[in-house]
Amino acid sequence: MAQINPSILSADFARLADEARAVEGADWLHVDVMDNHFVPNLTLGVPVVESLRKATDTPLDCHLMIEDPDRWAPQYVEAGAGSVTFHAEAAAAPVRLARQIRAQGARAAMALRPATPVEPYEDLLPELDMLLVMTVEPGFGGQAFLDVMLPKIRRTRRLIERHGLQMWLQVDGGVSAETIERCAEAGADVFVAGSAVYGADDPAAAVRSLRAQAEETASRTCAH
Ligand SMILES: O=C(CO)[C@@H](O)[C@H](O)COP(=O)(O)O
Ligand SMILES: [Fe+2]
Protein backbone atom coordinates (compact mmCIF):
# COMPACT_ATOMS: atom_id res chain seq x y z
CA MET A 1 0.00 0.00 0.00
CA ALA A 2 1.61 3.25 -1.16
CA GLN A 3 1.80 6.09 1.30
CA ILE A 4 2.03 9.79 0.40
CA ASN A 5 3.64 12.17 2.89
CA PRO A 6 3.29 15.86 1.91
CA SER A 7 6.30 17.93 2.94
CA ILE A 8 5.35 20.98 4.97
CA LEU A 9 8.57 22.63 3.71
CA SER A 10 6.69 23.71 0.58
CA ALA A 11 3.76 25.13 2.58
CA ASP A 12 3.17 28.71 3.72
CA PHE A 13 4.90 28.83 7.13
CA ALA A 14 2.69 31.73 8.27
CA ARG A 15 -0.37 29.44 7.90
CA LEU A 16 1.08 26.11 9.02
CA ALA A 17 -2.05 24.86 10.82
CA ASP A 18 -4.27 25.51 7.79
CA GLU A 19 -1.66 24.02 5.47
CA ALA A 20 -1.44 20.88 7.62
CA ARG A 21 -5.22 20.52 7.52
CA ALA A 22 -5.26 21.08 3.74
CA VAL A 23 -3.70 17.62 3.26
CA GLU A 24 -5.84 15.64 5.67
CA GLY A 25 -6.22 12.23 4.04
CA ALA A 26 -2.46 12.02 3.55
CA ASP A 27 -0.78 9.13 5.36
CA TRP A 28 1.75 11.27 7.25
CA LEU A 29 2.74 14.92 7.31
CA HIS A 30 6.46 15.18 6.51
CA VAL A 31 8.18 17.79 8.68
CA ASP A 32 11.68 18.84 7.53
CA VAL A 33 13.85 19.98 10.42
CA MET A 34 17.06 21.76 9.29
CA ASP A 35 19.69 23.32 11.56
CA ASN A 36 21.88 25.26 9.09
CA HIS A 37 24.80 22.97 10.00
CA PHE A 38 24.01 19.53 8.61
CA VAL A 39 22.38 21.32 5.64
CA PRO A 40 22.70 24.96 4.51
CA ASN A 41 19.14 25.92 5.49
CA LEU A 42 17.16 26.58 8.66
CA THR A 43 13.53 25.63 9.18
CA LEU A 44 11.77 24.77 12.45
CA GLY A 45 12.28 22.97 15.74
CA VAL A 46 10.60 21.20 18.64
CA PRO A 47 8.02 23.92 19.57
CA VAL A 48 6.64 24.02 16.02
CA VAL A 49 6.29 20.22 16.00
CA GLU A 50 4.39 20.45 19.31
CA SER A 51 2.00 22.99 17.78
CA LEU A 52 1.56 20.98 14.56
CA ARG A 53 0.69 17.93 16.65
CA LYS A 54 -2.26 19.88 18.10
CA ALA A 55 -3.28 21.32 14.71
CA THR A 56 -3.83 18.05 12.81
CA ASP A 57 -4.76 14.41 13.33
CA THR A 58 -2.36 13.36 10.55
CA PRO A 59 0.66 11.64 12.14
CA LEU A 60 3.94 13.53 11.91
CA ASP A 61 6.95 12.12 10.03
CA CYS A 62 9.89 14.25 11.23
CA HIS A 63 12.93 14.25 8.94
CA LEU A 64 15.85 15.56 11.00
CA MET A 65 18.52 17.15 8.82
CA ILE A 66 20.53 18.17 11.86
CA GLU A 67 23.80 17.47 13.58
CA ASP A 68 23.77 15.49 16.82
CA PRO A 69 20.45 13.67 16.27
CA ASP A 70 21.46 11.35 19.14
CA ARG A 71 20.74 14.27 21.45
CA TRP A 72 17.72 15.84 19.70
CA ALA A 73 15.66 13.02 18.17
CA PRO A 74 14.11 11.91 21.50
CA GLN A 75 12.76 15.44 21.97
CA TYR A 76 10.89 15.20 18.66
CA VAL A 77 9.20 12.00 19.85
CA GLU A 78 8.20 13.79 23.06
CA ALA A 79 6.87 16.67 20.94
CA GLY A 80 4.49 14.24 19.22
CA ALA A 81 6.29 12.83 16.17
CA GLY A 82 5.01 9.37 15.23
CA SER A 83 8.10 8.68 13.12
CA VAL A 84 11.56 10.20 13.49
CA THR A 85 14.19 9.98 10.75
CA PHE A 86 17.82 10.73 11.55
CA HIS A 87 20.64 10.87 9.00
CA ALA A 88 23.18 8.04 8.93
CA GLU A 89 25.90 10.62 8.27
CA ALA A 90 25.04 12.56 11.45
CA ALA A 91 24.25 9.85 14.02
CA ALA A 92 27.07 8.84 16.38
CA ALA A 93 25.30 5.65 17.54
CA PRO A 94 22.51 4.78 15.09
CA VAL A 95 21.51 1.48 16.70
CA ARG A 96 21.26 2.99 20.16
CA LEU A 97 19.32 5.94 18.74
CA ALA A 98 16.87 3.75 16.79
CA ARG A 99 16.24 1.67 19.94
CA GLN A 100 15.68 4.84 21.97
CA ILE A 101 13.12 6.17 19.45
CA ARG A 102 11.28 2.85 19.41
CA ALA A 103 11.36 2.59 23.20
CA GLN A 104 9.62 5.97 23.34
CA GLY A 105 6.85 4.54 21.13
CA ALA A 106 7.66 6.07 17.73
CA ARG A 107 8.82 4.57 14.46
CA ALA A 108 12.58 4.81 13.92
CA ALA A 109 13.95 5.68 10.49
CA MET A 110 17.34 6.42 8.99
CA ALA A 111 18.09 8.59 5.93
CA LEU A 112 20.92 8.33 3.41
CA ARG A 113 22.25 11.33 1.47
CA PRO A 114 22.67 10.66 -2.26
CA ALA A 115 26.38 9.79 -1.93
CA THR A 116 25.90 7.46 1.06
CA PRO A 117 25.64 3.78 0.06
CA VAL A 118 23.14 1.48 1.77
CA GLU A 119 25.39 -1.60 1.94
CA PRO A 120 27.43 -0.60 5.04
CA TYR A 121 24.12 -0.36 6.94
CA GLU A 122 22.76 -3.77 5.94
CA ASP A 123 23.15 -5.24 9.43
CA LEU A 124 21.32 -2.26 11.00
CA LEU A 125 18.16 -2.63 8.92
CA PRO A 126 16.30 -4.84 11.45
CA GLU A 127 16.65 -1.99 13.97
CA LEU A 128 14.70 0.37 11.69
CA ASP A 129 11.05 0.81 10.73
CA MET A 130 11.92 2.76 7.59
CA LEU A 131 14.90 3.64 5.42
CA LEU A 132 14.85 6.98 3.53
CA VAL A 133 16.77 7.13 0.27
CA MET A 134 17.19 10.84 -0.55
CA THR A 135 16.52 11.57 -4.21
CA VAL A 136 17.92 15.13 -3.96
CA GLU A 137 20.75 16.61 -1.92
CA PRO A 138 18.98 17.49 1.36
CA GLY A 139 18.40 21.14 2.23
CA PHE A 140 15.77 22.58 -0.09
CA GLY A 141 12.39 21.81 -1.61
CA GLY A 142 11.67 22.09 -5.31
CA GLN A 143 14.88 20.45 -6.61
CA ALA A 144 15.04 18.12 -9.61
CA PHE A 145 14.72 14.37 -8.91
CA LEU A 146 18.04 12.50 -9.14
CA ASP A 147 17.45 9.56 -11.49
CA VAL A 148 20.85 8.18 -10.53
CA MET A 149 19.34 7.16 -7.17
CA LEU A 150 17.06 4.56 -8.77
CA PRO A 151 19.64 1.73 -8.58
CA LYS A 152 20.12 2.45 -4.85
CA ILE A 153 16.35 2.23 -4.30
CA ARG A 154 16.35 -1.13 -6.12
CA ARG A 155 19.30 -2.44 -4.12
CA THR A 156 17.67 -1.34 -0.86
CA ARG A 157 14.43 -3.12 -1.77
CA ARG A 158 16.42 -6.30 -2.49
CA LEU A 159 18.18 -6.08 0.90
CA ILE A 160 14.83 -5.63 2.67
CA GLU A 161 13.48 -8.69 0.88
CA ARG A 162 16.61 -10.75 1.47
CA HIS A 163 16.31 -10.15 5.21
CA GLY A 164 12.54 -10.72 5.20
CA LEU A 165 11.91 -7.31 6.80
CA GLN A 166 8.61 -5.42 6.98
CA MET A 167 10.31 -2.02 6.99
CA TRP A 168 9.16 0.79 4.72
CA LEU A 169 11.30 2.32 1.96
CA GLN A 170 10.80 6.07 1.62
CA VAL A 171 11.96 8.42 -1.14
CA ASP A 172 12.22 12.18 -0.69
CA GLY A 173 13.09 14.91 -3.17
CA GLY A 174 11.65 15.78 -6.56
CA VAL A 175 8.83 13.23 -6.27
CA SER A 176 5.98 14.25 -8.60
CA ALA A 177 3.50 12.87 -11.13
CA GLU A 178 6.46 12.64 -13.56
CA THR A 179 8.81 10.70 -11.26
CA ILE A 180 6.70 8.72 -8.77
CA GLU A 181 6.21 5.76 -11.09
CA ARG A 182 9.96 5.27 -11.49
CA CYS A 183 10.32 5.29 -7.70
CA ALA A 184 7.48 2.82 -7.21
CA GLU A 185 8.88 0.52 -9.91
CA ALA A 186 12.24 0.55 -8.15
CA GLY A 187 10.58 -0.56 -4.90
CA ALA A 188 9.78 2.55 -2.85
CA ASP A 189 6.50 2.45 -0.93
CA VAL A 190 6.50 5.77 0.99
CA PHE A 191 6.67 8.95 -1.08
CA VAL A 192 7.45 12.42 0.23
CA ALA A 193 6.15 15.19 -2.02
CA GLY A 194 6.50 18.88 -1.24
CA SER A 195 6.14 21.13 -4.25
CA ALA A 196 4.06 18.55 -6.15
CA VAL A 197 1.43 18.71 -3.37
CA TYR A 198 1.58 22.27 -2.03
CA GLY A 199 2.19 23.74 -5.49
CA ALA A 200 -1.07 22.16 -6.73
CA ASP A 201 -4.39 24.05 -6.80
CA ASP A 202 -5.93 21.30 -4.66
CA PRO A 203 -3.28 19.71 -2.39
CA ALA A 204 -5.60 16.97 -1.09
CA ALA A 205 -6.48 15.96 -4.66
CA ALA A 206 -2.76 15.92 -5.54
CA VAL A 207 -2.18 13.46 -2.67
CA ARG A 208 -4.95 11.17 -3.93
CA SER A 209 -3.68 11.31 -7.49
CA LEU A 210 -0.05 10.55 -6.52
CA ARG A 211 -1.20 7.65 -4.34
CA ALA A 212 -3.30 6.20 -7.19
CA GLN A 213 -0.31 6.46 -9.57
CA ALA A 214 2.03 4.74 -7.10
CA GLU A 215 -0.44 1.98 -6.31
CA GLU A 216 -1.17 1.32 -9.95
CA THR A 217 2.57 1.06 -10.64
CA ALA A 218 3.17 -1.23 -7.67
CA SER A 219 0.32 -3.52 -8.70
CA ARG A 220 1.68 -4.00 -12.23
CA THR A 221 5.35 -4.44 -11.25
CA CYS A 222 6.74 -7.26 -9.20
CA ALA A 223 9.44 -5.13 -7.59
CA HIS A 224 7.93 -5.83 -4.17
O1 LIG B 1 13.95 16.82 2.85
C1 LIG B 1 13.65 17.49 1.89
C2 LIG B 1 14.63 18.43 1.28
O2 LIG B 1 15.81 18.36 1.98
C3 LIG B 1 12.34 17.26 1.28
O3 LIG B 1 11.41 16.74 2.20
C4 LIG B 1 11.74 18.36 0.42
O4 LIG B 1 10.95 19.23 1.17
C5 LIG B 1 10.91 17.76 -0.64
O5 LIG B 1 10.42 18.77 -1.47
P1 LIG B 1 10.12 18.50 -3.02
O6 LIG B 1 11.42 18.08 -3.64
O7 LIG B 1 9.09 17.40 -3.07
O8 LIG B 1 9.62 19.81 -3.52
FE1 LIG C 1 12.42 15.63 3.85
TrEMBL record:
Binding-site residues for a divalent metal cation, renumbered to this chain: 30, 32, 63, 172
Organism of provenance: Streptomyces hazeniae
Cofactor: a divalent metal cation; Fe(2+); Co(2+); Mn(2+)
Active-site residues, Swiss-Prot/TrEMBL: 32 (proton acceptor), 172 (proton donor)
Cofactor mode of binding and number, as noted: Binds 1 divalent metal cation per subunit.
Record-given protein name: Ribulose-phosphate 3-epimerase
Residues the entry annotates as binding substrate: 7, 63, 139-142, 172-174, 194-195
Superkingdom of origin organism: Bacteria
Keyword set includes Transport: no
